[in-house]
Amino acid sequence: MKLRIAAIGRLRSGPERDMLDEYLERCSATGRGIGLGPLSETQIDARTLKSKYDESRALADSLPNGARLILLDERGKALKSREFASKLGQWRDDGCREAVFCIGGADGHDHASLPRPDLMLAFGPAVWPHKLVRVMLAEQIYRATSILAGTPYHRD
Asked: Which residues contact 115 (CB under 8 A, 6 or more apart)?
């Protein structure tokens, strides 16, 4: 199952970009043998988008048919790492071809403009900078892949 992070805005060179690229690479390598990955990223240029509606439509337009849609949303569910891994493993085992994790703009998602999500995911009640959310999400996807692969990366 392919994995993709679709995000509004561009992540330029710097420590966050370096960390994100590291987790994209690690996840793709770890997941290869267990049917997960590669993990890729789609950046949607926010300069041409005027509203939350436009951002959400751009995210929706980037979704392939049949993909699982995961929205990063403050009203989402905070999953433990093993729960998250289990969800990814279940989708993979059910024959899902791709899962897309969508990160909206500064004002979040226009839910009416998006297909119904398969999961709304939150990283707790705190507000996080978009740059860090991408890195945190990529790390959690890598961690889930590592759990499913049986590597010692994750410790309970």
From this structure: 60, 63, 69
